[in-house]
Specification:
Strand order of the largest sheet: 2-1-3-4-9-5-6-7-8
Distance between the termini: 98 Å
CATH class of the largest domain: Mainly Beta
Structural class: alpha+beta
Oligomer: single chain
Order of helices and strands: HHHHHHHEHHEEEEEHEEEH
Number of strands: 9
CATH topology of the largest domain: Umud Fragment, subunit A
CATH superfamily of the largest domain: Umud Fragment, subunit A
CATH architecture of the largest domain: Ribbon
Number of domains: 2
Helix content: 25-40%
Number of helices: 11
Shape: elongated
């Protein structure tokens, strides 16, 4: 049944065997063998197939697509929204105070690399230090992340960015600065453009235009946190416009003129 389901999926999405096999990192004959039930795909290939079509393995393995009506295909086509809206299972471990209030965990720089693996592990989360920021809403979940590099000025290298947990990713407006936890790159702080409806992805951009924007697919994202504030030990440098510099020089000249007239 899985081979036939793969064939019906491919045809429904108007893809050729060449296109799908390249996307899955297979040669065409191997992929064709799966569709024709000459061989059975392993769990890794099944996972790749499901990621490509944004469906769960349960749908692919348990359903017979021969019995699907148009309504069923439409539901399948939009099943990605279940993930994007957080309607499915999305684990968020958190620390709470003695008053049962959620605390703001701070991810130390040394724990940054392990966050993508330990984000859902209560043991990992409970060992994190916490901070108090009373000006933030107690009705929202917040977390603080370390930022490295120079891609997001005025936030400087070594700063900590405080994010508000976003459960429904479809609600993110383009141009929103967010902390994004990805499977490959871990924690990144970028400005997001929402392309979920068109190609199930976000475009991530830096405020430093030296860095090129890049795209991250829905399936590669673990968590998204909306930027709320940042903590830094450095005072951001201020660059004056030419008109401001001219005004400042004029003020200095006026001051010198007054001093000379008094002497």
């Amino acid at each position: 049944m899985i081979g036939n389901n793969m064939k019906l999926l491919r045809k429904r999405f108007s893809k050729s065997q060449d296109e799908i096999s390249k996307e899955l990192g297979l040669n065409r004959s191997t992929y064709s063998g799966y569709e024709n039930a000459v061989a059975q795909p392993g769990i890794e290939i099944i996972t790749r197939i499901c990621d490509y079509y944004n469906i769960t393995a349960d749908i692919l393995l348990r359903n017979d697509f021969n019995s699907y009506k148009e309504k069923d295909w439409q539901n399948l086509k939009h099943s990605w929204k279940t993930t994007a809206k957080g309607s499915g299972l999305r684990i968020l471990s958190a620390q709470v105070s003695e008053k049962n209030e959620e605390l703001i965990e701070m991810i130390p720089a040394k724990a940054k690399a392990g966050y993508a693996a330990g984000y859902s592990d209560p043991e990992f989360i409970k060992d994190l230090p916490t901070i108090s920021l009373p000006f933030l809403s107690k009705n929202r979940k917040h977390r603080t992340f370390p930022i490295s590099g120079d891609s997001m000025p005025p936030v400087s290298d070594g700063s900590f960015v405080v994010g508000e947990f976003i459960e429904d990713w479809t609600s993110i407006s383009s141009g929103t600065p967010c902390i994004v936890v990805t499977r490959d790159d871990g924690i990144v702080f970028k400005v997001l453009d929402n392309n979920l409806e068109s190609d199930k992805s976000f475009t991530l951009s830096s405020t430093n235009t030296f860095y090129e924007p890049y795209s991250v697919g829905l399936k590669d994202i673990i968590e998204v946190w909306r930027f709320r504030c940042y903590i830094s030990m450095e005072l951001p440098s201020i660059q004056l416009e030419e008109s401001q510099i001219a005004d400042a020089l004029q003020q200095i000249q006026n001051s010198l003129f007054r001093i000379e007239n008094k002497s």
